[in-house]
C-alpha cells in the first residue's frame, strides 16, 4: 500500500473543502491525509452488522414548531457582522463572470 | 480563598443573609484568574459586564441556589455582545447578536458570566493545543495539557478560579479534560440540553454539559441547562431534579465493565486505580461483571467518519460573507471562499474538513458514511443490550494521565485515539460522566467514567456521589 496521497489527490480534496494548499503544505498533507484515510479504512474490518442506520441518536417523535412569526433578528445588527454590506444587503464579489467558465 | 471553597448552599446563605454581595465573589474570581494568568484558561474576560450585572443583582431577591454565582462559558457558545471565537482566527473578532439558549438559561437564574474559556479550535482536538490563542495549562502541572476540547473550562475550575463552567462534548470533550484535571464533567443525553447557539462541530454528536469540582454542583447546573427548546427540535422536555438521588443508597445495583475499557490500551496505573474503585463497589454489595461488547473498539473509526463528515458540512458556513474574517480584494467569489478559509482555519481544522469533504463526496458517502451510520446503530443496540442486565457501565475515562504540552503533534490520529474510551458514548447518544478516583504516582488526576441509559443522568449522579464520598478525592492543585 502506498504511504502517501499523490499531489493531485491532495489538491482534489482541498478543492472540495475550499482550502488552498501551499507548496510547503502539499507534502505534509500527502502524508497526513493518507494517515487519516487509512484510519477510516478500518471500517471495512467490521462485518456482521445490520442494515439499519442511525443518523442521530435521537428517537423521540419530532413535532415542528407551529408556523407563527416569532421574534426576528434586527437586520441592522445582522449586517454589523458582515464584512461588507451596503444598504440592507450583504455585499459579495461578482458571482457570474462572462469571461470565466469556472467560478463558485 | 474566602468563599469559593465553600459548598454552594453556604455561599447561597451568605448572599441571602446579605453578608456578602455578588461583587465579593467576582473580586475573588478575578483575583484568582489574574494570579493564574499563566494558565491561559480564557480567551476573553467579561469583567466590566460581570460587575455591572453583579451590582444590579444587589437590589434583587436571592431566589435560587445559583443566584449571583460566577460561571465560565466555553468559547464555542454564543454570548450576545461578548466576543465568541471558538478559538479560531476566522472568528477572532466575532461578536454574536444573540445568546445561546443555555446562556439565556443561566442568565435567567442570575448567574454571572465571567468570561469565555480557551479550547481546541472549533472543538477539534483533545489537548486544546489547536487553539489559535495558545493552549491552556494543567493546574496540576503547568508542563501538562488540560485535555480538550474544553481545556480552558477544565483549567479554570481545577485552578479554583470559579465553581462552574460550561463545556461541550462531541467525542469526549467534557469528560476527558475533566479526567485530566480532576473534575466532575457530564456529557448529558443527546437532546437533554439545547444546542441552539453552540457553534456546531458534529451536530449528531455535540452536547453542552456542566464541569464542576463536585457532583452536587454538577447536577444543580444540569437542572438549569436542560429542557425543551423550540429553537432545537432535538431537545427534550425535562421536568426533573437531577440532584434528587444524590446520597440515596444504592440497592440491587449491577455494574458492567467492558473488557475493552480495561485492555492494554490503558496504562497499568489507571487500570489499577479503576480496579481499586471496583473493589469499593464490591465491598458495598454492588455486583460488578466484566463483559464483552461488540463494536466499541471501532467507535473511533466511526467517529472519524461521522465527525469529520459533519464538520466539513457545518464549517462550510465560514465563507467570509456573512460574518467572521474575510479576505480582502479577492479576484472572484471562489477566491474569497478559498483565501478566507485557508487563512482563517488552523491545521487540525483544515485536515478534518478536507478528509470530511472527501468522505462525503460522490460514491464515498455510501462506502464510508452510510456504513458508519449502520455500525453506529449497532453500537447503540449493543449498549441497549448491556443495559437490559446492568444499571451502569464503568471504566477509565482516559488511557493515560495528562501528557506534556510539548509532546509532538505530528500524528494526525493521536487526537482521536486520546478519546478512544469516551467516544462510544457520543455514538449512542447516552449520558456519561467523569469522576476523579485518585492520583497517579506523579500526582496527576485519574478519572473514571460512569455511563447509564438515555435520560438516566440522575442515576449517574447517585453512583458518582457514592464514590465521591468513599474516595474523598478532594484533590488540591495548590493553585
Give a verbal description of the structure.
The complex is a heterodimer of chains A (104) and B (479). Chain A is 34% helix and 4% strand. In chain A, helix 1 crosses helix 2. In chain A, strand 1 and strand 2 form a beta hairpin. By secondary structure, chain A is mainly alpha-helical. In chain B, strands 1-3-2-4-6-5-10-11-9-7-8 form an 11-stranded mixed β-sheet, sandwiched between helices. Chain B starts with 7 loop residues before the first helix and ends in an 8-residue tail after the last helix. The relative contact order of chain B is 0.14. The mean pLDDT of chain B is 96. At the A-B interface, helix 1, helix 2 and helix 3 of A face helix 9, helix 10, helix 11 and helix 12 of B.
User: Which stretches of chain B are poorly predicted, pLDDT < 50 over at least 5 residues?
Assistant: none
Distance between the termini of chain A: 35 Å
Number of helices of chain A: 3
H and E order of chain A = HHHEE
Tell me the strand order in the biggest sheet of chain A.
Answer: 1-2
Characterize the main sheet of chain B. Answer: 11 strands, mixed
CATH class of the domain at 8-250 in chain B: Alpha Beta
Sheet-strand content of chain A, in percent, reads under 5%
Record field, number of beta strands of chain B: 11
Instruction: Tell me the CATH architecture of the domain at 7-44 in chain A.
Output: Orthogonal Bundle
Q: Please list the strands of the largest sheet of chain B in the order they lie side by side.
A: 1-3-2-4-6-5-10-11-9-7-8
Shape of chain A: flat
Shape of chain B: globular
Provide the helix percentage of chain A: 25-40%
**What is the averaged pLDDT score of chain B?**
96
Ends apart, CA distance between termini of chain B: 10 Å
C-alpha Rg of chain A (nearest Å): 23 Å
**CATH H-level homologous superfamily name of the domain at 8-250 in chain B:** Amidase signature (AS) domain
Helix fraction of chain B, binned, reads: 25-40%
C-alpha Rg of chain B, in Å?
Answer: 21 Å
